[in-house]
Amino acid sequence: MKFIIIIILIISVALGSIWLYRYINSGNETMNNQLISINALCNGKKECVYVGEELAVNVVITNIHSEPIEVPIKFLQQRGPSITLINEGTEQELVLPTNPANPELINDRITIQPNGTSRISWIIHDDEIRSVGGDTVDINVEVTLASPIYRGGVITEVITESNFKITH
Predict the structure, then answer these.
(1) Rounded to an integer, what distance in angstroms lies between the CA atom of residue 154 and that of residue 26?
(2) How many C-beta neighbours within 10 Å does residue 168 have?
(3) Per-residue b or e along 93-126, where b marks 16 or more CB atoms closer than 10 Å to that residue's CB
(4) Which of 48, 131, 134, 168 could form a disulfide with 42 if both were Cys (CB 3.0 to 4.6 A apart)?
(5) What does pLDDT average to over the chain?
(6) Residue 21 scores a pLDDT above 60
(7) What is the rounded distance in angstroms from the CA atom of residue 86 to the CA atom of residue 48?
(8) Backbone dihedral angles phi then psi of residue 91, each to the nearest 5 degrees
(9) What radius of gyration do the chain's Cα atoms show?
(10) 66 with 86, same domain?
(11) Alpha-carbon distances, residue 32 vs 15, 27, 38, 66 (angstroms)
(12) What is the three-class DSSP state of 116?
């Protein structure tokens, strides 16, 4: 009986050590070692002029790690980035809604090589701009992308941001 208890204790300590090692390393990966960066562009620029029409947003995702990574691009495209419009004059904010995404798309990933890119597109509608811009449009657009990134069998949740301006 003592032998069985000792075996169970050894297995418990080993499993606990493995869990602790993964927990510590996953925290370091998220906080200290970014895997991607994003560059949000409005009609292909960091500053665009609002002319009363919807605006095309491109979010360029770049692998800034030294190894290939896998990103669920179709999932991100369906859900969309998190976008906040901030009127520079009035400080009024509007957080645009994201879409519900098919959870099965999280497993449909593309590989991005080191320094390689992929992109997703989004539309900011005219009424969304007008609701925060009013008569004078001077809007800072904050774009945030949260995604699981797969690298060598390790999954890391990454959150990264970029911004651009909309003027009138």
Answers:
(1) 9
(2) 14
(3) ebebeeeebeeebbeebeebeeeeebebebebee
(4) 48
(5) 85
(6) no
(7) 15
(8) 65, 15
(9) 21
(10) yes
(11) 26, 8, 17, 14
(12) coil
| Residue 20 and residue 41 share a domain | no
Average pLDDT on 8-27 reads 51
- In this prediction, residues 44-56 reach a mean pLDDT of 91
Measured from the Cβ of residue 34, the count of other Cβ atoms closer than 10 Å reads: 15
Q: Quickly tell me which residue has 């418990």 as its tokens.
A: 12
Q: How far apart are CA 75 and CA 127, in angstroms?
A: 26
Determine the distance from the C-alpha atom of residue 158 to the mean position of all C-alpha atoms in its chain, rounded to a whole number.
6
Structural contact between residues 40 and 58, judged by C-beta atoms closer than 8 angstroms: yes
- Expressed as residue numbers, the domain containing 26 is 1-32
pTM score: 0.76
20 plus 47 within the same structural domain: no
CB 124 within 8 A of CB 52: no
Closest CA relative to residue 72, chosen from 43, 25, 105: 105
Domain count, the chain: 2
Q: Rounded to whole angstroms, how far apart are CA atoms 15 and 142?
A: 42
Burial 131-160 (b: 16+ CB within 10 A, else e): ebbeeebbbebbbbbebebbbeeeebebeb
Cα separation of 49 and 167, whole Å? Answer: 5
